[in-house]
Design goal:
It holds the Pfam family LPMO_10. It comes from Actinocatenispora rupis. InterPro entries: Cellulose/chitin-bd_N, GlcNAc_Chitin_IntDeg, Ig_E-set. With about 200 residues, the protein is mainly β. It has one domain: Coagulation Factor XIII, Chain A, domain 1, CATH 2.70.50.50. Strands 2, 3, 5, 6, 8 and 9 form a 6-stranded mixed β-sheet that branches. Strands 1-4-7 form a 3-stranded antiparallel β-sheet. The two termini are about 30 Å apart.
Length: about 200
């Protein structure tokens, strides 16, 4: 945890220093989901191993915004098309990622931790459909076409810890995946987080 804390502080410091050279870094916002716990966060916690670089920077899964019309390519959604984070796309046999136990229709507080805040357009949460195969990397045709929860960012800078109350989708059972997308207001990018869930 100490290493991770230092890295977070380093990311913020590097961000502040990099404001003068934004051309080299198109977005200085970073964040990851802590509820439901994302694959990136499980890697950072050390709960799962063989995670590669993502264990040091769970906040960095950044890709073009506009999902599902744009954004990371199919099969590489959880890693945001970053080759260094490819472990996030690995389904690990369909049962290798820890799950968050949830219930369809329940009130749920979705949480993000932001290591660097940025003006926000919206937050969206997608869930997998009946076409989902947990043993295969995530593709768009495995997701319901519309998010089950959308939160307007109001073009405002959010706090470092964001909580959003919504309702888990009904009619789901067994192992599924929730894709959270944080869309930044004044860059071309968004942040993507995959969380494995079990609806029981």
């Amino acid at each position: 945890m100490r290493i991770r804390h230092v890295l977070r502080l380093g990311a913020v410091s590097a961000t502040a220093a990099g404001l003068a050279v934004l051309a080299a870094s198109p977005s200085y916002a970073h964040g990851y989901t802590t509820a439901p716990v994302s694959r990136a966060e499980y890697c950072a916690q050390g709960t799962v191993g063989d995670c590669g670089e993502i264990q040091y920077e769970p906040q960095s899964v950044e890709a073009p915004k506009g999902f599902p019309a744009a954004g990371p390519s199919d099969g590489h959604i959880c890693a945001g098309d970053h080759a260094d984070f490819a472990q996030l796309d690995d389904p690990r046999g369909g049962t290798g990622w820890p799950v968050n136990h949830v219930t369809g229709g329940q009130s749920y507080t979705f949480r993000w931790h932001l290591t660097a805040q940025h003006r926000t357009t919206k937050w969206e949460y997608f869930v997998t459909s009946d076409a989902y195969d947990p043993a295969k990397p995530l593709t768009r045709d495995m997701l319901e076409p519309q998010p089950f929860l959308t939160v307007d960012g109001g073009d405002a800078v959010p706090p470092a810890d964001v909580s959003q109350t919504g309702t888990m989708p009904g009619g789901k059972s067994g192992r599924q995946l929730i894709l959270a997308v944080w869309t930044i207001a004044d860059t071309a990018n968004a942040f993507y987080q995959c969380s494995d869930v079990d609806f029981g």
